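The data are quoted verbatim here:
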Amino acid sequence: MSTHVPSVAPSNDLYLAWQVLRREQPRLRARDAAERLAVSEAELVASRLDVDTLRLQPDWAQLLPALGELGYVMVLTRNEHCVHERKGHYREVTVSANGQMGLVVSADIDLRLFLGGWASVFAIEEQTAKGAQRSVQVFDRQGTAVHKVFLTDESQLGAWAPLLERFKAAEQSAVLDLLPLPNAASVKVDALIDVNALRVGWSTLKDTHHFFALLKTHGSTRTQALRLAGSEWAEPLAVRELPKLLEQLAAREVPIMLFVGNRHCIQIHSGPVKNLCWLDTWFNVLDPEFNLHLQTAGVAELWRVRKPSSDGLITSWEAFDASGELVVQLFGARKPGIAERQDWRALAERAPALEC
């Protein structure tokens, strides 16, 4: 074990309670253990500071580019119902001048980072049955995991200790100063939405990235806009069609862009999917460089969405949970300036729309 991560007998009650739970359920993940113990995952990780964990400085403009020194890693971003894991190199990192936004746009790791919500970061070196597992884990102000970076067998292990030494926080405190979630914005009832103006605005989009601004202009939630846009732009689909589409895409080796995110990070896989399997209600992609774990029971709505752009019509499939939060989003793989793939569009348009 690296001398930069302490390993001494713990004395705090939370850590001890966690170890009791782990002995009872050795395969229980930290996220689920935290829920059982009625704490945030960040609090659970912070309880390990005297064991196998180091608190790092949340200096995102310096830390994020430094992660590239670790070489070939696995990055993980998830929401309540979907986990996205992608292997590659943490390269081409940029952070905005105000420190609120970040991008990673390498060929394999593709991230959109909303750094204003990032709060704490830890380096963990845990001993497992397969040996040491090393990771850097980021949490928001509510203690929820935002983004994680794991070393692999092909990582540059020699860069691990210097990175920890460089970014080690001066005070190794377990105090996190967590905040409650901000109150959700009030939702307009449908009758207060100018549907005609919404549809005109939708029809004149030039870039899919402008869709959020359209929602904001009209004070509409995403699922509300889909309901009001009309079948030309959005159609509800049976939830069971989502795994079917992925199976069809895999069979035809159609490359896609698959987005999974939370409030502070979006992670994107670009390329085909191949090895698909079910485990109970979880639908999984288990490819060498990309894994997806989708809890299909958490998907309450599925929509086929069409948006105009300067490159032509862009088609996506968007899955939402019961709270209207986006779970996963699929597009055909493409670059700006290039029209949508016809093989993607043909499959995306195949599923019948539900009766409204």
About this structure: The chain has two domains: 13-91+119-167, 190-276+296-348. Confidence is low (pLDDT under 50) at residues 1-10. The radius of gyration is 22 Å.
